[in-house]
Amino acid sequence: MSLVKMSALLDKIEDNSYAVGSFNVSNMEMVMGAIKAAEDLHSPIILQISEGRLPYSPLALLGPIMVAGAKNAAVPVAVHLDHGVTMETIQLALDLGFTSVMFDGSKRTVEENIAMTKVVKKMAAVYDADIEAEIGRIGGSEGTYSADELITTVEEAKYFADATGTDALAVAIGTVHGHYREKPDLHIERLREIASVVSCPLVLHGGSGISDADFRRCIRGGIRKINIATSSYDAVARHIYDRAQEDRHASYFDFSAAAAKGTYENVKRHMLVFGTENKVK
Ligand code: 13P
Known about the structure:
single chain, TIM Barrel, eight-stranded parallel barrel, 9 strands, 16% strand
């Protein structure tokens, strides 16, 4: 099945019945665990790495592993750069064969964000790759803002999507990256309004810690891509820790298997909620 474009997975979801999970990975074991979950469930998947994690996992090393994992998979896999902020990293991801790149201009003014997103769209077009962009501010690693600043408005979402021609749009509807300090208050009505005027697929960031019921409400409201990072990292750490507790002579290879298994279980759990099981014929 192999490496595909993000749009090939997202554009066909027209009835708000499911969303494709986009799972952050940081090493080969996480790539293997995530792809195995997709294969076992006959599910499409997006693998992604965020620019902020590159100090731990250099793109020039991990990127080729992600692309090779996709090409060898029995299901369709898109390979995506998450939260690209520098043009150098975006260019490298495209050179390595990523099928989509995100430009995160959320810390810039709307006009700057539009101008830079258009540059990224042109860069990606050379490779026939897709782009994702963001309007509004998702809390957590993007800083602390008041509730109103965090929520994308209908007008700005439409203006931004029309001006940039982005292939997917990340919107801020009350989720945050990382661990939730309090129960998230999701703005589903706002999401519905945005979905009714923006035709490109909408993306939910900050998926870890969202309840199954809220995931389903987001999908029915128009979300077609859901990003999951923190809960996979937590699952990997927990599996390694448990393995060490079980057997203090556990080997490197036991820990490697634990990392793949932690990712596998977390990815599978989310795919079942997102409704992608058996979407690959
Ligand atoms: P979490 O770490 O909260 O799952 O967020 C993932 C994400 O949105 C990556 O872009």
